[in-house]
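Recall the central idea of this unit: under ordinary conditions, the amino acid sequence of a chain determines the structure it adopts. In this exercise we apply that idea directly, starting from the sequence alone.
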Amino acid sequence: MKLQFKNIHFVGTSHISKDSIQEVQESISENKPKLIAIELDKPRLYSLISKKKRKLKISDIKKIGIKGYLFGVLGSWIEHKMGKITGATPGSEMKKAISIAKKEKIPIALIDQDISITLKNISKRITWKEKFRFLKEILTAVFSKNSKNKIEIDISKVPPQKMIEKLTKKMKKAYPSIYKSLIIDRDLYMARNLYKISNLHKDEQIVAVLGAGHVKGIIKLLKKQKWPRKTTGKKQKK
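Accordingly, the structure predicted from this sequence is:
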């Protein structure tokens, strides 16, 4: 999924889709950006490019809470399993962006919130009602072949916008605290960073590589900002 706002070219990706790798490559080639913004923070960047993958440890519970720890472990496991099915390593599109940036000597901006803060927020906010619902859905998925509310998704491709909106609304309704921690908070954090970057490089092109579920929300937030007016050759009155 490709969208544009101001001088920012958004590539909405799926972290386990081979199609996303191609889209990242095409967007950078077409737009020739002076900077590439990526949905990563320092810990996740290190984990992605390091040969020794950093996994969550029991000692991390003190920092992010037991619920945040379990959510992180489960999320990593699911992403790994889905990646095996699609044949794409989780985060491959991010690695492709980093690889191209290194080769072409394009600066990279890490725009996402620290993962430990996100997991800590989930641990603090998640309710018992959400925990039981989450457990119920996992058990249903494991032991039931058919589900009335099943949504068919081709995980090898980036979901269409209507599908993303449908899944997002479902998540917001069923897991409001997780939705706030994973989507709302991070959309705001990344939008603020992109706003600063866009203003600093207002005469240059920027490619932003991030999950497709964040793109629409971030663009909506950016539209609310007071963007500096473009100056003409004439001097403005003080």
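Residues 2-144+155-223 form one domain.
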